[in-house]
């Protein structure tokens, strides 16, 4: 894996943001820690320690790990009524938060999250540079999180 000091520094720099991102997806602290840890291990195994894309790659892996760790909603006739009601309220909150976003942010979130497009494809669709795409998605996700925490 390389120099233990560099590995430790990368872990300290990236673990907490990855864990928070994963927890926003899984809503479970244990699953989020697993997703972040697995992402760092996979990134360390795949990339050189000085690779400038280390953080971006780790974030992508953490997101995918978190999606795999996310508990599925129960379906079918034996699903308790309160679970269905909670899911409906949750969907309504997400729709409301998404509709409050500016159009460009809403499109970026849709392309990135729901269409599972990479940043490059999102940027190309919106006519943005990779850096501008990252900034737009960061602002959109921050606004969504604030809106959902307030509701």
From TrEMBL:
- What UniProt keywords apply to this chain's record, in alphabetical order? DNA-binding, Sigma factor, Transcription, Transcription regulation
Domain (RNA polymerase sigma factor 70 region 4 type) ranges: 93-144
* Start and end residues of each RNA polymerase sigma-70 region domain: 10-70
What InterPro entries does UniProt report for this protein, alphabetically? RNA_pol_sigma-70-like, RNA_pol_sigma-70_dom, RNA_pol_sigma70_r2, RNA_pol_sigma70_r4_t2, RNA_pol_sigma_r2, RNA_pol_sigma_r3/r4-like, WH-like_DNA-bd_sf
What family does this chain come from, according to its entry? Belongs to the sigma-70 factor family. ECF subfamily.
* UniProt name for this protein: Sigma-70 family RNA polymerase sigma factor
Please name the source species: Solirubrobacter deserti
């Amino acid at each position: 894996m390389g120099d233990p000091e560099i590995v430790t520094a990368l872990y300290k720099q990236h673990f907490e943001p990855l864990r928070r991102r994963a927890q926003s997806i899984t809503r479970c602290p244990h699953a989020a820690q697993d997703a972040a840890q697995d992402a760092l291990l996979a990134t360390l195994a795949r990339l050189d320690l000085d690779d400038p894309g280390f953080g971006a790659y780790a974030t992508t892996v953490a997101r995918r790990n978190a999606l795999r760790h996310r508990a599925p909603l129960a379906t079918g006739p034996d699903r308790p009524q309160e679970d269905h009601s909670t899911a409906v309220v949750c969907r309504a909150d997400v729709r409301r938060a998404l509709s409050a976003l500016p159009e460009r942010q809403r499109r970026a979130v849709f392309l990135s999250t729901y269409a599972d497009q990479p940043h490059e494809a999102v940027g190309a669709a919106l006519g943005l540079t990779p850096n501008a795409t990252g900034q737009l998605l960061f602002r959109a996700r921050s606004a969504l999180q604030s809106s959902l925490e307030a509701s």
